[in-house]
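Co-fold these.
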Amino acid sequence: MISRRKFLKNTVKGIAGVALPVAAIEFIDPKKIFAEKPDAKTRWVFVVNTYKCVGCGFCVKACKIENKVPYDAKVTRTWVERYVMLKDGQVFADSPMGARDGYTTSKIALGENRFKDIKPEDIDKAFFVPKLCNQCDNPPCVQVCPVGATFQLPDGVVLVDRTWCIGCGYCIMACPYGVRFFHPVYHTAEKCTFCYHRITKGMKTACVDACPFGARMIGNIKDPNDPVTKIIMTERVAILKEEYGTKPQVYYIGLDREVK
Amino acid sequence: MSTGTRRGSSSRWVVVGLVVIVLIIRAFYVPSDFGVGQRGYMYGWHRAGDAGFWKNFPVSYKFQNDYCSSCHPENYNSIMKSPHAIIHCENCHGPVLNHPSDPPKLKVDKRRALCLRCHYPLPYPTSGRANIPGIDPVKHYPDNECVTCHNPHNPLEGLK
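Predicted complex below.
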């Protein structure tokens, strides 16, 4: 029989024995300090001007090709929504294939192969809204990842580690903006990266460059002379779903309350 | 009492053994650059090396005007004088990739659907689309490519 004193002694020893080596590794590993290196010179932000967007969808086409998202799969990192508001108060919205091929019909896609044609004289207001990852300051997708596969860089861009992602889909459910999906080839979570391979080389994102009308802009909000910073600081801009507290960093000009 | 001591010492070794096994697996399985970033336990976990993967992702679209104009100045100059100057070459001609070595020739998209992206009439107030002239694709020469009659590099010059 084991005595009570001995049992308690062994228990304390055991817990200490388990806890100590783990704690030692936790605090000493120098590689971890390397991962913590802050870089405060850059914070990438985006501006979308909905007045300028004509719904041509060149941005979606360029994004899918540039980032090798399978072209005919019904997933996309960026997309353009169409909103049509009628004089009688009805609101219609669609985004067939994410507007990869633009809007080449006045018929609104209602889903399940049903369409509604709307007469121009019934329209109160109608416009296009490009959407992409908001690279939130408080990214809920990063918070919920159980394996640390999705992360935010000091410059604000949220990325997915394809070798580390287990494909559980929590991040896809957590994103209030619905920007995440499963990559049809890699079966890992996929999202807009603000074209990280382009912006880190001094280029603009593929969608910004492809837009003929200047509806999309990317910039560094830490640079006071950046035209994007000036727009955000001096013009009337809005963000999506502010009430969620995610602090999204894609700013919209001409947003309507019907746009969620 | 003596059997109790023996049992205690053997279970102690089981615990120590398990801890050692877990630590060995952890040392091999967890990448050396995996850790908590500056955002702490709620947002910080990541493998630092993955940023390099996304940085080194290949660029397909150059979207640089001088890259196209250095070899094709006459085509570049003609479109720059037209309202289509705002549309970059690669939107219709496709991504440049490593052209001219690979691919040696770019495939231009001549489908009607490409032109209709902007020129299907959608008179939406509060959208720039309302200001672009459009055609009804069902009635306007439905069986022809637009480029049969129109020059996309200079649409205002008149019909071919």
